[in-house]
Amino acid sequence: MNVRVATKKDIDSIVEVHLERFSSFFLTSLGKPFLKTFYKAFLKNPGILLVLEDEGIVKGFAAGSRDNRSFFRKLLKNNWVEFAQAGMKILLTNPAALKRMASNAGKSEKNNLIFAELLSIATLKNKKGYGKILLDEFEKEIEKENRENLPISLTTDFEENEKTVQFYKDCGYEINDVFESYHGRKMYRFIKY
What's the pLDDT at 82? Predict the structure, then answer.
């Protein structure tokens, strides 16, 4: 088993893990081309994209930022051509989705907390502790360049999510607040100092 920084060659595998684990999530509804663009954008600083391999096969990934300040603006700026192409397809097939993405990005920009952030983590179902291993490696990757000693933040669903909430608590994360995202979806924000 091995965790490493992802490369472009890993993007298809990352998208497949995402589709399997997040089948009913909003980002999934935007389709494979958008997901490929989205995760590929994390390959550039200040993004972080790690993969967990077992027997040479990608079994999980973690995506995040070293610093949440203007992160999504930087992500778009660094990859504007790819996002423009993906956005045109979405505009033609699901224009309401663009409004939701703009709303979500705008809310994240208004956050008063400054932190590194785990934005997405997923593993294929297993009994080998992939999630804990991947989270530990993500935290180590943050620490490599964390000159400001920023805490790590992550969000997860409030409703019907006890196992995940307990997992983050067991990993040393504390509930910072409860908030509502798009369409009143209740979420936890966890912080680890």
Answer: 83
- Amino acid in position 182: Y
Q: How far is CA 191 from CA 25, 41, 175, 185, in A?
A: 23, 24, 6, 19
Residues with Cβ < 8 Å from 108, sequence gap 6 or more?
Answer: 68, 71, 72
Spatial contact of 49 and 62, defined as CB atoms under 8 Å apart: yes
Task: For residue 151, say if its preceding peptide bond is cis, omega within 30 degrees of 0.
Answer: no
The single residue listed with the structure tokens 């939701």 is 100
Residue 129 half-sphere exposure, CB side, CA atoms within 13 Å? 7
Closest CA to 8 of 37, 33, 29, 47: 37
Which tens digits make up the pLDDT trace of 55-110? Answer: 999 999 999 999 999 888 888 788 777 877 777 776 667 666 666 566 555 555 45
The Cα 143–Cα 152 span in angstroms is: 10
Q: Record the pTM.
A: 0.86
CB within 8 A of 123, min separation 6: which ones? 17, 21, 52, 59, 60, 130, 131, 134
Distant-in-sequence, close-in-space partners of 85: CB < 8 Å, separation ≥ 6: 37
Residue with the two structure tokens 């505009």: 91
Pairwise CA distance, residues 137 & 64, whole Å: 12
Q: CA-CA distance, 124 to 132, in Å (whole number)? A: 13
